[in-house]
Specification:
The chain is α+β, with helices and mostly antiparallel strands. The protein has four helices and two strands, in the order E-E-H-H-H-H. The chain folds into two domains: 82 residues, no CATH class; 57 residues, no CATH class. Helix 2 runs antiparallel to helix 3 and helix 3 runs antiparallel to helix 4.
Length: 150
């Protein structure tokens, strides 16, 4: 007796290119392309009761489901790559502030960097770090320098 066997294969791909630019310098921080490829295959048959061949329906993801799976993967990769340069921003701000204060003697610009670093630490709930203590000391020093006295 004859029976039909079906085989289906779907291949999908998605590609996203992005660029991260530091707005203060205009410099490209990161330029990359993220690719995702997904292959779905299935085999199904009508089944033959007399030959003890069970019915196996052909089940394969729809185009929309495949696109959603690939998009989820790409968004996850993109968010990981985009957030990477922002992980230790407070350290960058602190080091820039320290350089401005100690080497260039530009107190007010240094104060701005220290405030940025302090803000980033508070956003991350990292309030009592060694950097925070140093920032507090530098900020106090700068404010005392510019304090008006009667």
């Amino acid at each position: 007796k004859e029976y039909t066997v079906n085989k289906a294969k779907k291949v999908g791909f998605i590609e996203i290119s992005y660029r991260i630019v530091d707005v203060s310098t205009g410099q490209n921080v990161s330029v990359d392309t993220i690719r995702s490829r997904l292959v779905k295959e299935d085999v199904g048959n009508d089944g033959v009761k007399d030959a003890n061949i069970a019915y196996d329906p052909l089940e394969i993801a729809t185009d929309t489901e495949m696109l959603q799976m690939m998009a989820d993967q790409v968004v996850e990769d993109l968010s990981r790559k985009v957030l990477q340069p922002l992980r230790n921003r407070e350290v960058d701000y602190f080091e820039a502030g320290e350089e401005l204060l100690l080497k260039r003697k530009e107190s007010l610009e240094a104060l701005e960097r220290f405030v940025d670093a302090k803000f980033d630490e508070r956003v991350k709930s990292n309030v009592n770090s060694p950097i925070s203590a140093k920032i507090d000391g530098y900020m106090k020093q700068i404010i005392e320098t510019y304090q008006f006295k009667n």
